[in-house]
Amino acid sequence: MSEVFIFPDRMERQWRVFEADTRGALADLGCDRDTVDATARNLKPVFMKHARDESFTVVPDNREAAVAAVNAWVKGLVTGLLVEVALREAELILLRGERLP
After folding, report:
1. Which tens digits make up the pLDDT trace of 48-96?
2. pLDDT tens-digit profile of 32-43?
3. Residue 51 CB: number of other CB atoms within 10 A?
4. Is residue 2 predicted with pLDDT exceeding 70?
5. What is the separation, in whole angstroms, between the first and last Cα of the chain?
6. d(CA 82, CA 86)
7. How far apart are CA 66 and CA 45, in angstroms?
8. What residues contact 38, with CB distance under 8 A and at least 6 apart?
9. Full-model pTM
10. Residue 58, exposed/middle/buried by CB under 10 A (0-12, 13-18, 19+)?
11. Which residue would you say has higher pLDDT here, 97 or 62?
12. DSSP string for the chain
């Protein structure tokens, strides 16, 4: 009998790295486990929405193109996540009834 191993797809692996770092950062800030778990649950769909499933190949004579592709991927992810943070900040401002200058 042979065993079949199903490995998580690339997006799920990317999420696991991001999740571990985020959980560690929140724990270092003193967040309790329930808060950390809830935050991770809420962040996962946001991360999956903005992360792209890409593989990068470094060709010795075209390293600049590979670096540009990685930079574009990172920029897209970070920009998407920052927009999500901005939306949540706007929601908090409205919920608190703060007046904008």
Report:
1. 888 877 666 666 677 788 788 888 888 988 999 999 999 998 888 889 8
2. 999 999 999 999
3. 18
4. no
5. 70
6. 6
7. 27
8. none
9. 0.68
10. exposed
11. 97
12. ------PPPHHHHHHHHHHHHHHHHHHHTT--HHHHHHHHHHHHHHHHHH---------GGGHHHHHHHHHHHHHHHHHHHHHHHHHHHHHHHHHHTPPP-
Note whether 15 and 50 are within 8 A (CB): no
How far apart CA 38 and CA 40 sit, in angstroms, is 5
Spatial CB neighbours of 53, under 8 Å, sequence gap ≥ 6:
9, 10, 11
Length of the chain: 101
Structure tokens at 7: 């490995």
